[in-house]
Each structure stands twice: as structure tokens, then as C-alpha cells.
Design a protein that fits this description.
The chain has 9 helices and 11 strands. It has a 6-stranded parallel sheet with strand order 8-5-4-9-10-11, with helices on both faces. Strands 1-3-2 form a 3-stranded antiparallel sheet. The longest helix is centred in the first third of the chain and has 19 residues. Helix 8 links the parallel strand 9 and strand 10. It folds into 2 domains: 71 residues, Orthogonal Bundle (Arc Repressor Mutant, subunit A); 114 residues, 3-Layer(aba) Sandwich (Rossmann fold), CATH 3.40.50.720. By secondary structure, it is an alpha/beta fold.
């Protein structure tokens, strides 16, 4: 009999799972072993019905009248999100944004270890960024192999980002977070998440005008 295909969760559910995990970690830090859907939903900032529907994708992890075992549910969400794996991150671009990202403590806390940072600017290459030394972007292939990189972060201009997308795809790095200020053409099989800071600010400006 053919093996059952793994469920592909809706993107909105995946996004909310990260909030549930953060809330569960906070509850565990408070010494709580169990929690209810109402409490967890409040901590995560969602409706309890939405929370229960999201968690139903993961199987049955709650008991009516008893609630959820905090550590057990947190570990299951960790496994579902793939956070039990070793995620080794490469940052491309050692400007202000790249340097700030390389020093973000939240990466390590959530299991993402920044292994290297690269740039094309000779003035940047060889400088220190925390515990890392900026390396030459021309050494991308050797750095990916040496550090066993499986996630890349693009903190470079638009055209440079597009060129790097193709290079990373050829090197087998298929998970990319892009801060480039333009949409990118993405090869088949590659997952790219785009963070457009200017767009987010424009949305905030609109909401401020409406309020």
C-alpha cells in the first residue's frame, strides 16, 4: 500500500503555529505544565476556535477538560515546523541590514545558527561582524559546502538578489529569506520568503490615516 502523503498545512496556519510556540515557551518559563485552548489562544492573540482548528491539523494533542501538556505540544509544533533540524544560515550582504541580522539573538534561540556572512565590497571583506569575518561573495560555493548551509538570507539590492537566487539554486540551497526591494524570479523547487520593509511602512501609514 502506498505511504500516505504528509499533510501540507495552510500558510496562515503555519504562521500562527509560530505564535503558539512562542506562547507555549512563555508559559513553560512560568512553570506551567498544562494549559487550556482559551489561555493559549489569549497568549498567542488569536480566537480559541481558530487555535483549535489549527492544532487539529497536528492530530489530537488536547484532552477535553484537561487541556494541553505544554512541553508535549511545544515539541510537536517544533517537529512540525522542522525546528528539530540543524538550520545553518548564510547572510549575503554585509551592509547595515546584513550586520543587524547577523547579530539578531532570536535566530539562535529558535535554532537558526548564522554560519557566515558574505559581501562583494573589498572594503567589507575581512572585517568582523560579531564572531564572524566577512568573506568574499565570489567564494559562495565553497562557503555553502564548508558550512553545510541550508538557508540563505539576501540583504542585497534587487538585481544582485536575482543573480544570487540562481546561484543558490544551483548549489542546492532552496530556502531563502529575501529583503531585496523587488519580486524575484524563483526556480522550481525553491522556497523564497520576501520581506518588503517599505511596503509594510506604507501599509502602516495608510492605517494611521484611517484611524
Amino acid at each position: 500500500m502506498a505511504e500516505a502523503e504528509a499533510k501540507v498545512l495552510p500558510e496562515a496556519t503555519v504562521a500562527r503555529l509560530t505564535h503558539y510556540l512562542r506562547a507555549l515557551n512563555a508559559l513553560e518559563a512560568q512553570g506551567l505544565e498544562r494549559t487550556s485552548s482559551g489561555v493559549l489562544a489569549k497568549e498567542a492573540g488569536v480566537n480559541p476556535a481558530i487555535l483549535r482548528k489549527d492544532l487539529s491539523w497536528l492530530g489530537s494533542y488536547g484532552t477535553r477538560g484537561v487541556g494541553y501538556v505544554v512541553r508535549e505540544l511545544a515539541e510537536h509544533i517544533n517537529n512540525t515546523l522542522g525546528l528539530n533540524r540543524d538550520w545553518r544560515v548564510l547572510i549575503l550582504g554585509a551592509g547595515n541590514l546584513g550586520r543587524a541580522l547577523s547579530g539578531y539573538a532570536g535566530f539562535a534561540i529558535r535554532g537558526f545558527k548564522v554560519q557566515a556572512i558574505l559581501d562583494v565590497d573589498p572594503a567589507m571583506i575581512g572585517s568582523r561582524v560579531g564572531q564572524l569575518q566577512v568573506e568574499d561573495s565570489r567564494d559562495l560555493a565553497s562557503v555553502v559546502e564548508r558550512e553545510e548551509i541550508n538557508i540563505a538570507v539576501l540583504a542585497v539590492p534587487g538585481q544582485a538578489a536575482q543573480d544570487l537566487i540562481y546561484e543558490l539554486s544551483d548549489l542546492g540551497v532552496n530556502s531563502v529569506l529575501s529583503f531585496a526591494p523587488k519580486p524575484l524570479v524563483v526556480p522550481r523547487g525553491m522556497n523564497v520568503r520576501r520581506v518588503d520593509l517599505s511596503t509594510e511602512l506604507q501599509i502602516l501609514a495608510y492605517l494611521a490615516v484611517q484611524s
